[in-house]
Amino acid sequence: MEIEENLLQGAATNKMASYVLSVLLAIGSFALSAALVFASTAFQKIAEIVVEKIADMCFPYLPSALGAMLPFNSESAIKRLQMALPRIRDGMSFAEELKMIDPSSSEWVRTWIEESRQAVDAAEDVLDELEYKRLKDMVKNRDEAGGSASSSKNRKTCTVSGDILKKLKKAVTILDQVAAGLDHIHQHQHATDSKICCSEPQQEAGNKNSRHETTGFLAERDVLGRVVEKEKIIDWLKRPTHARVSSFGIVGLGGLGKTTLAQFACQEIRDSDYFDKIIWVCVSTEFSVRSITEKMLDGLRESRCGDKPLNVLQESLHAEISGKKILLILDDVWEDEKREDWEQLIAPLRLAKQGSKILFTTRMESVGKLLSSVINTEHECLPLKDMRDEELGLLFNSYAFEGINPTDYGDLRAIGDQIVKKLRGSPIAAKVIGKLLNSHMDQPFWRRISDYGSLINLDKAKDVMEVLKLSYYNLPADVQVCFRFCSIFPQDHEFDKKELIKMWMACGFIQQQSCQEERPEDIGKNYFNLLLKKSFYEKSHSWYGERYVIHGLMHEVAQNVSNGECCRVASNDRSLTIPSSVRHAAVHESEIQKISHLENLHSLVITTCKKETGTDLFVLPSNVITKSLRLLKIYGYRSCKLPKEMSRLVHLRYLSIERKHLGCHEYLLPASIYELYHLQVLECAGARLKPSFLEITKTGITNLVSLRYMRFSEEIMRTICGVHQLTSLQELIFFVGKESGYHINELSTLNYLRHLTIYNTENIDNPAEARNANLLKKESLQSLCLGWTDKEDHDTDNIEQIIDNLQPHRNLIKLTISYYKGQRSPVWLTVDEPPLKVSSLKLYGCLYLNKEPIFGKLPYLKVLCIYDCPKLESLPDLPLSLTKLRLNRVGLISLPNFPRVFEELTIHGCHDLKHIPIHAFRTCISLKYLCIQYCSNLSSLPHLPLSLITFEILYLGVSALPEYLGSPSSSVGQSTSSGGRLKSSLREVKIALCTNLTALNGFLEQDHVDFPALNKIFIAECENLVRIPKDAFGKFESLTDLTIRYCPKLAAVEKQNTLLPSNIEKLSFGDSGELEVALKSRGY
């Protein structure tokens, strides 16, 4: 019997050997032919990575007996392939450029590109199946042995079917045939070199230090040019009107600066508080009354409005704006037909205060005509023309010579003047091309750009698009594909940088070479920063965090260059034809069957919609989940059910199911998702799982040995057992438990963590157990949160030793400690050799902390927050790097002096605080924000620096306001007005519930100080306030908003001709004594 088994094994080995040998020969053939045919930089990103992976991955699957049967040395074969790889270049990138330069070649080039993609996809799929098999066997061996999994990077020899090797041989043979097509492309290269701008991509993309939904905030520092247009818009906004609602349209082609002008107007009018509420909504091509109404409410409340019927949303909107003067800004409007939708959208605005206005941007004059007929008022329009060359030149030079002295580059300025004339008045083209040139300050490159402008005969929108494409083609090939991917999202979509990079990783856009130690996330960050630097992205000032958008015209570029590769299917989009070549798609649930024919789909993003009637459950059809999927994201308004066929998605790396509105929603997930061994991202935020699946999740998730990110509800995260097996994790929320699989030593193997939160730390039994978390060896850890519960039972000595043994690596940047029961801070916070790199430290609910932490040992600390530490009576000297301090319900009696770079102080509920040194801000040259609230025993405030922008005090025991530091004779380094007077930066003053305050004196009436920026003063409920500043408020020439309420003892200023400045716009007073009488007598 043993002899028969040996014979069978030998036969199988011989058969395997023949397959592997043929595969290796095919690899060699492909590599050499590609290297000989094309010797510049094009097939590399495709061929180099794939061939290297093939060579690297085949040998670990060979039986050990096979080595002797190969007719050549395996190591030698790999070396020959690796020597050929540097000569293999990225023909597909060049081919994309060739389509632009030589339109006659586009058809055969497009065919060749698609054949190349199919060949590469097939090869990568086979490699992925080999790796899937390895991971599956590793998990199986781990479970059988009852131990922990080794790192997923470790390789073990395992048997693999001949079918997979047949597929691999076929894929590489096809690659060999495709490489032959490079010969045709090679013939075009020299003929077109003078027409294409050569880039230096890899260096820039990889340089760590290298240099949309729209919002109402300007991304630019200044808005250059368009002086007349800006004045016209501002004049209309400030002009009184008898109409309840009027409208004004900024009309023009894409890229002329419509949105920028609207943002400028929004910013200017916001600073003046001319309107009670300003609402910015980015509309774009999909005109949805529900969506726009939700955005209006979100903007008003600065929070999500929730999942509600449209009539409820409109009632809420009506309540928010009723009786208020509203400015509604609608950016990028296209809808010029659906009058009923416009009527429904505008209905709540009809109850706004007289003088409310709608400012909108559009490419079509017909939008303004429809809107004016809906609101039944005259419509004003500003047709935006091309910028004059003089203005465009200023804009162009501001980007082309950013950070550089233009006088040092006289030769380039002359070429730049020629380029500006070819941009035909397009601001977006000036910005993008300017930023492109800023990275290449040499004459040949600038001349190539100038010559290229001559080739395409710039004229209007079409040729502006070609100019923007030029910047795209100068990106590295791997960054180009990242940008193309973004086209599947709607115009003005807000991107989260971290989430987008995770998607790029899942799609395989971020490829690590074997020699690279950098994380793919870090490589992706470099890609993103390059796109941001080149103006492909812009920052969006979103209320829920840092977000980025793609400019409208840049989004059109993305759609143009991704045609046939990426596709977006909106609701009721019946005219769209989807080619079979599409790899990445986003689709509305109502149109999902339109993509069922896409066999090579790699990414699928599905948007679900609110159902007024019927089931709230979206069921994903099994016929649309093709085996080739790498990314599946479902988000919208419904719960979700995934089919059991999910198990065939062996290539899946990213699975995210998210409902737009908060709350727990039932997600029906098949147990087979825990057999998706390639999965890197698993997100089901807010999910409520059935008990049976919850039990599967408890241990099943540890099968996902490639997992880097998981996001579940707290209920689910508490149940996950044995996380030590997920050694690739980058982020983790961990709940310490008493049972096996939940001990703190589960963290010992997770050495790649970047962000770690540990809750229920009280369940660590002893200090020795805490050391088993191995935090000190986690060099990559950037943020750490240590959390106890608020239970009263505790052993102080034991807790202090436990936190000492939870010492992180010195590379830590952010540290949060909550409900810690010790009396002192951990010893590792007091060690200064080597110092911790912590820049943010937050202490919450440390009720027994009474020994002042030594913050001076943290030389990098910038942000310090202390909340609910009632026994902490004093702070030590603050580190010189500190910029922000926030104190809330802390038992402090006094405060130390503040460092030179300090910017922001917030104190709340510190009733024991009696003293802040009068010169606490003496060295502060950057203090901008001071807010002190509910400190009833604080009787005086320190002198203020002139840099202060916001001064806010509430419920303090002060009897007088502080004065400014310095005087005209001692104002070294201070900002001065004409005549040596000091110039305050103050913009806003808020004083309320200060019952001991008798006069608005101090800094508000210092003779030698001017207030050119002060535009808002709010005084309320100061019952003993008698005297306003001796010059009243007339000296504050920029004051536009004044509120004085519930100050019944206020006296009028005698013999004062000017109580208020002439440009006051918003005045509110009531129960304000004689001052109110005086104001009313003068017609206010």
Description:
Among the domains are: 2-196, no CATH class; 227-383, 3-Layer(aba) Sandwich (Rossmann fold); 730-882, Leucine-rich repeat, LRR (right-handed beta-alpha superhelix) (Alpha-Beta Horseshoe), CATH 3.80.10. It contains 28 helices and 34 strands. It has a 14-stranded parallel beta sheet with strand order 19-20-21-22-23-24-25-26-27-28-30-32-33-34, with no helix packed on it. Strands 8-9-10-12-14-16-18 form a 7-stranded parallel beta sheet, with helices on one face. The model is unreliable at 1-17, 29-46, 59-91, 150-157, 189-212, 455-460 and 967-973 (pLDDT under 50).
Task: Quickly list its features.
Rossmann fold; Leucine-rich repeat, LRR (right-handed beta-alpha superhelix); ATP binding; single chain; seven-stranded parallel sheet; 34 strands; leucine-rich repeat; globular; 14-stranded parallel sheet; 28 helices; 1084 residues; disordered N terminus; alpha/beta
In percent terms, what proportion of residues is strand? Answer: 15-25%
By DSSP, the count of extended strands is 34
What is the number of helical segments per DSSP (H or I, 4+ residues)? 28
Which sheet architecture does the biggest sheet show?
14 strands, parallel
Mean pLDDT figure: 79
The structure class reads alpha/beta
Oligomer state of the chains in this structure: single chain
Low-confidence stretches: 1-17, 29-46, 59-91, 150-157, 189-212, 455-460, 967-973
Taking the alpha carbons of the first and last residues, their distance comes to 109 Å
Alpha-carbon Rg, integer:
33 Å
- Main-sheet strand order equals 19-20-21-22-23-24-25-26-27-28-30-32-33-34
Helicity level: 25-40%
* Dominant shape: globular
